[in-house]
Structures are given as structure tokens and as C-alpha cells.
Amino acid sequence: MDYLKKFQNWRVHNKMLVKQELISRIKDYFDLNIYETKVWLALLGKGIASAGEIAELSRVPRSRTYDVLESLEKKGFAIIKLGKPVKYIGVKPHMILEKMKNNVRSDAEERIVTLSNIRNTDEFVKLEEIYKEGLRPIKKEDLSAAIKGRSNISNYLREILQNAEKEVLICTNAEDINYKLKLFQQTVQSLSKNGIKILIALSGDEKLIRKFEKDLGIKVKKTDVDAKFFIVDRKEILFYLSKNSSPEDTAIWLNSDFFAQAFTSIFEKAVNVVQ
Predict the structure, then answer these.
(1) Cβ-count burial of 51 within 10 angstroms (0-12 exposed, 13-18 middle, 19+ buried)?
(2) Is the pTM for the entire model greater than 0.85?
(3) Domain 142-274, CATH 3.30.870.10 — does that match?
(4) pLDDT digits (tens, 9 = 90+) for 235-260
């Protein structure tokens, strides 16, 4: 029996050596420290083990192994087997992953509620007042900005579209709509509810365009114009500097009647071509 036990420990230890190069990655993936990662891997490789066995397999000091196992139990990575002597069982990785996803989702929802409540505070009202005071001395034609980053652009785009009073013109490609489908669905619904006129012209795959037409619940024109721009009330325009969507996207926003009207002419010609 002693030989069998030594052979099993030797086999598990060899598995651990193979995994050494993955320890740092697993540590980061699951937000563990080095000792916790080594002990969890040893426990997964062994299945059921005592603290002494885990210390031998993981090469974590025996004096620390008890604390590490207790920490892993609290985090849900290990459970204690009923009976004597005390032994531990490693929790399946996919169960850990699902738990972590649920925790992130729950934390995000709580964070969203917290951020939403900020709008009702006196401090936020003061921030809005400071911003408006700062804008008053600025000439309308001086209002322009370069926006970098896909997420930042999407947030800014949502803001200017939701502030539309009469009309929104959208010219982009089907792939871009596909990436921002949730944003466009919510925006189109909100604009339509407020009686805002919406015109959309898309380049790209015909089948994908018709799918979006159905998903968005609005008539979509197909165009050969390979550009991405959004015009609000023929006064504001946001246009991308590249057609391919990436995390490093850059867009230009202009509060300019001149530029908005110029791009509106391009849009109207594009729509007329396909009519």
C-alpha cells in the first residue's frame, strides 16, 4: 500500500510539474495568489487529499498549507470531506468559473444601481451647473472633439442621438450595426417613441441588412457609400476615421451646420441612388 501511495503521489507531482508554466496564468484568471494556485492544482490532480498530502504535492510549506486550504474553502475552490481524518476535495473548474461569472454580473448590477443613483444627488446637479457655466463663453463653431476608443465613441454616440429633436441620419456598414445592435435597437426605439425621424443607409451584405431592418423595425436603405457617420438635426455630426471597427477606433464630433449639411447631401445622394 505504501508503494501504491508513493506511486500515486509521484504521478500527481509529475502532472504538477507539467503545469508549472500555467500557474501564473491560472493565478490571474481566477484571482488567486501563488500558494492558493499551487494548492488548488494539487488538489484537483489528487482529487481527495489531506493537508499533508497537498503540502507534499504542491511544494507549499506545510505550515502555510492549512491557511491556504482554509482560504480556498472560503472562496469556494475546495470543500471539506465529511469524516476523519480531515481531507479536502477540489471543486470542478467549470463550477468555479460559473460562480465567478455570477459574482461579476451581480457586482456590475450593483455598480449600475449606484451610478444611476448619483444622478439624484446634489453633487451631480452641481457638476451639471459647472459644465453649463463652462460652455456659455464658448462659440458654437468651436465645439468639436476627437474621441478615441470604441467604448468611448459608443457612449458619446448614444448621448448625441438621444438628444435629437427632429431627425437622425445614419450611414454605416452592416458589420458596424451588427457589433452595436443592442445600442441601435435601444436608440431606435427611444427615438421612434419621441417622434424623431430616422433614416438609415447601410453598405455591406444584403441579407444582413434585411435582418437588421427586421430587428430594428425600420426601413433600411442599401448604399455603396463606404463611410460611417451620424448626423443629428443637421447640426451635429460624428464620423469615424476608419471603416473597420476596433478597440482603437477614433471618431470626430463637430457641432457645425456647415459640415452637417455637407454630409447630409452625401447621405441624400446615397439614398437616391438606391431608390
Answers:
(1) buried
(2) no
(3) yes
(4) 999 989 877 667 778 888 988 888 88
